[in-house]
Request: fold
Amino acid sequence: MVKDELRLLQGDIKNLKKERHSLLLQIQENKKRVENLKIINDSLVKTNAYYDKKKSGKVSLRKGDIMTIRRTSNTTCESTKTQPRYRGPMVVTEIPPSDTYRISQLKPSNGRPYATTAHVSQLKAWRSWNEDDDDSIENSDDGPEMQRPKRTVRKPEP
Reply:
């Protein structure tokens, strides 16, 4: 009888060891799962911070602001590298209730005015080449076209 009881106790001890081992494995798996969730959460926080840093946030334009609009790429045989990326200058003419703006061309080309509705993500502020020299733009014959700064030529030293 004592031998039978010892065998039962040994069997119970083996079962307890197996249960203990399986519980330890479950605890380790849960710890790994929690660590992985923390890593994923940290990664999401970093990704969101990077995204928010790159986005300009809420852009508010007013009627009369001068903008450029992003062009859609033409499907020609030419390289898109040489095609202009933006069309402009354009002026904001109307502000609908959403993030879209009604814009029209500041100076009509070919005698035809160009007007369209564009999302704020397609718009960019108009900047001339010579922002400091505003009077040079006003005195030029070209009008609001972009101008390149004048190059200075240095004479060689003897």
Summary: The helical segments are 2-54, 134-139.
